[in-house]
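Data availability excerpt. The first of two example chains:
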Amino acid sequence: MIPVAASAQISELSLKESIRIALDQNLQYRGAEESLEIARAKMKESYGNFLPNINVSLIHTLDEKLMEFEMPPLAPGMDPTPVTIDFTKDFMASLQIRQPIFAGGAIWFNYRQNLYNYRAEEQNYIKQRLSTIFQTREAYYNVLLTEELITVSEEALKLNEGLLKNTELLYEQGMANKFEVLNAEVQYENIKPRVIEAKNSRNLAMLGFKNLLQLETRNDLILTRGLEFIERDFNLDSLLILSNQIRPDILQMEYQQNRMDQFVNLSYSTFSPTLALAADYNYRKDDFSWDMNKWEDNYSVNLVLSIPLFRGTSRIFKVQQANAAKRRVDIAQQAVITGVALEIEANYLKFYVAIEKLKLQSKNVERAEENVRIADLNYTEGLITPLEMSVAQMNLIETRIIHLKALYEYLISLAALEESVGIENLN
């Protein structure tokens, strides 16, 4: 017997690789792929309406009631003679061909309707793709943020631990009082829960990230990219113009509008006559035989014109339904265009607010670092108390945390703006 040790695998993932895995394995995105495949199959199914229908039928008559009538008597005083006539054959093989020639445009409008439905579903597929990319970027950045917060929290814990030891040493030398020692102890103990919370937040963020990518939760992951500033500059008018060209929601509504046009035309086609070519070729025989020369054959070729004179009021109301459905799509299209413009403008404003906040926090980090450097020199010279040194260090830690969150908000606002326009950014 060979013992098997179960060990967790460690994998490294970049943002681009994470997006690729999400597009391969995310359940919602895969569901959108299947919906697109259904629409594609339905569109191809409508091709068949242009082609002839060919059927072969084999008929064996098992039982039948024959036509019977009486022959008049051949001579006076004789009884009438009953006579039966069989107009059918017990065995018949038939080949039937039906080719539509003109159907008032119904076949063409049906095909176009399915075509635009497929294109609309294609845009829904692209929309789900953009959503999956955004969700992956958001989850990836969330893990990175929690990892950075762990680093900052542990750094704060280490600094306060060193400050506590120095304060205790100064207390033993009579250079610090009991209040300063107790304050350093409280400050040190207050940092420990923050480290625990940061690690728990990281575990939860990683769990959500793995669930999004449909990865094994027991495997350890290392994200190779850190939180970093990605410089971008946008023009609102250009973004609005671009969104009208590539945004899936807008293009989807345009295809839906075209689909409704075909639906209206299809409803009017029910008033039109139809023309079809019908051909039949038959073999018939009373007794089955493998010798085809003994079978009777006949054929017919017909040109069938059908004129729908009256079908109640169903056709009129179907036209009304189609026109109402078209107007509803027109209204929905205007709502989508307006909603997209508002969404882009809101994300545009959030993006530039995030830039300003990030710039301010970057300067604050520089100030806090300089403040700690000066405080450290003064503390070494004995010019400030341990409490004052602790305040300077904690200000730096808090400033770094705020800066990290500002950087995270900037990256998320950038991803949201690109998604709202319809830009696919895999990096």
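And the second chain:
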Amino acid sequence: MKKLLLASVLAIASFPGYARAAERPSTYSTTLPPDKYDVPYTGLLKIWITPLPVIEYFCRGGSRVSCAWPGKDCRILILQPVAEGKRFDTLDLDGKAVVNVRGNLALTLRHELGHCNGWPNDHPDGRKTSFEETVTMPKLPATTQVICTNADRIYIDCKIAKPWWPNTTETRK
């Protein structure tokens, strides 16, 4: 019986994509923009806090954490656990399992605000960093709107702590 149990545990542990956070604690990394793009954004900013299915749909596989659409205004989608500073399960861009990554809202916002400020999607001159690093929160424009949705893309009340929303207006439209 012990041999059968041991064989089952070994089979599960060797399953592709299985990993423990302790075995790969800092494999999830991203980049900060170069200094010329890592500046306060001054346009209209809309931050959408949303669950993974919405991120996967709109970010089109580029990220499972966040993405930005610069334009007349800039729209940023952020995975809800990141906005809440919680830990979450995800996959890196190579499809390798990275489990129990702690959300780093400051890093995520600075990365995406770099795109709002014109940093190209191929991340030239990006400064590699880990989600485990401490990063200073960016200054958000007073015109920032924060919108929360569920997996069905229906607007919901944002029930997360809002100390990082300086002078923001929560909107449902």
